[in-house]
Amino acid sequence: xKDWLIGAMGMVLVLGVMAAIxxxxxxxxxxxxxxxxxxxxxxxxxxxxxxxxxxxLRDDEVWxxxxxxxxxxxxxxxxxxxxxxTVGRDVVAGPDGLVAAQxxxxxxxxxEVVANKLGDGTVVRSAGDGQVMVIRTVNxxxxxxxxxxxxxxxxxxxxxxxxxxxxxxxxxxxLSDAIAAVVRGLVTIEHDIEGLPEGLVLQDVAVQDDGFxxxxxxxxxxxxx
Length: 225
Hints:
Elements (H helix, E strand, L loop, with lengths): L3 H23 L35 E15 L2 E16 L2 E14 H8 L4 E6 L2 E10 L2 E14 L2 E10 L4 H11 L5 E3 L9 E7 L3 E14 L1
Antiparallel strand pairs: 1-2, 2-3, 3-10, 4-5, 5-6, 6-7, 7-8, 9-10
């Protein structure tokens, strides 16, 4: 992967490996220092009581039981993610790259990222009660019509989907009903979360005030080629 996110994750993890090697090479921690508890992983990633390295670990590989990476903003593959929380378990660094046996990513997809894909002037925002509102102007039946659509978000085949439950064209009810089927596809959101390592699968998504909070999971994810 050549995008910024993978490079950033790889750099942080490699630096962590180097720091750990240097720490243990110098000597034991100073006497009297308290142990620093490891950060708790997000839901869905279990940490065993006594983690053990894989049996086939080679001399030219380094194993980390778990590694965490937080970032306020990540720009990758031309897209933006906010409040990114990444936790990898059973991470092996070696000549073959950097691979996590389990990888969990929680990130917020800002509304404007999704709105930009629908077209200029589109607004996507929270409608409350876990619903999403899409506001845009569409061309239908030779006219430009202001449309306000509201729907709920769900995950379908690993994609973020918002299909309108109600569509308001700002005109008489009979007109709205007749044209709604025509404009439905123009206000339906189908979004792939981009810029993440290959193999991560969207598991769950929720609507927040600032965007879609996505939860992705994967196994044996290659972080650095």
